[in-house]
Amino acid sequence: MEIRMLRYFLAVAREENMTRAAEQLHVTQPTLSKTLKALEDELGEKLFTRHSFSIRLTEEGVLLRNRAEDLVGMADKIAQEFVTLDDIKGGDIYLGLAESYQIRLLARAIREFRTQYPALRYHITSGDTEQVTEKLDKGLLDFAVLVEEPDRARYEALIFPRTDIWGLVFPADNPLAEKKAITVDDLIDLPLFCSEQSWKNDLPRWCGDRMQELRLEGSFRLSYNGSLFAMEGLGYLLTFERLIDTSPDSGLVFRPLTPTLENKLYLVWKKYQTLSPIAERFLKHLQTSFTS
pLDDT tens-digit profile of 240-290? Predict the structure, then answer.
């Protein structure tokens, strides 16, 4: 199985049309059809179902698409690393990021770093711990930013210089807005929004045995989406401070939890991983930036 065949397959899967995919790949339609037939023969499975005006993936095709995206992504990353080995002005860095206001510190460090390496190109993926560490483990990322203590047996880590404070986001006209801070008692019987990861790992650190008294109305991986539901009065969003616009004109307010619940933020990379030259330089820049 060749990477070229997987690129052809992904183009057809994305376009759901043989003609458009062939045009995008700059190949003839017979060449594309022959390549896909050879791929199906090699795997011994039918990858597409053909309809009058479209092509759809079979279950086997969906499985191959997921694997092919990783393989093609890894091939591109390896090729780019070798192209830029001798590039003293830049290269490519791949990062997977959790949500935190401290990501601004990372953005600032990238801006500073580009003054020295103007040809730097950075690629950002956002997600929770499960999503970004999966890509990190597959070698698709150089670094991941996590909001929970990393597995030190698997990862090296650099701690961000600040912390993220937990609180509740809800409409400004809610009676709870009169309070300076939110207690566990305030949350009883409220429909709450939170990420599944934080509901399992962070909130129990704060309320202990009383966790069973809280009700999760819905889970969101992105706090912004949760804030829209909170704005409509469907629930109350548990999230970090500074992630959501709670300015006077926003219609929302943020109140911190009491006692204080906070998280550290970690930049992690795989143990014993050989970083590309530009990623190695960027890590040294971050280490200096975070400790200065």
Answer: 999 999 999 999 999 999 999 999 999 999 998 888 889 999 999 999 999
| Superfamily of domain covering 163-261 | Periplasmic binding protein-like II (3.40.190.10)
> What tokens does 243 get?
């992630």
Task: For residue 239, count CB atoms less than 10 angstroms from its CB and return exposed for 0-12, middle for 13-18, buried for 19 or more.
Answer: buried
Task: Report d(CA 152, CA 210) in Å as an integer.
Answer: 30
- And the tokens for 247? 């300015």
| Regions of the chain short of the pLDDT cut 50 | none
Per CATH, the homologous superfamily of domain 83-162+264-291 is Periplasmic binding protein-like II (3.40.190.10)
Single out the residue of 244, 242, 247 nearest to residue 230, CA to CA. 244
Q: What are the start-end ranges of the E strands in the chain? A: 48-50, 55-57, 90-97, 119-126, 143-146, 155-171, 191-194, 215-219, 236-240, 252-256, 262-270
Instruction: Write the single-letter amino acid at 173.
Output: D
130-155 confidence digits (pLDDT tens): 899 999 998 889 999 999 999 999 99
pTM of the model: 0.72
Contact 35, 75 (CB under 8 A): no
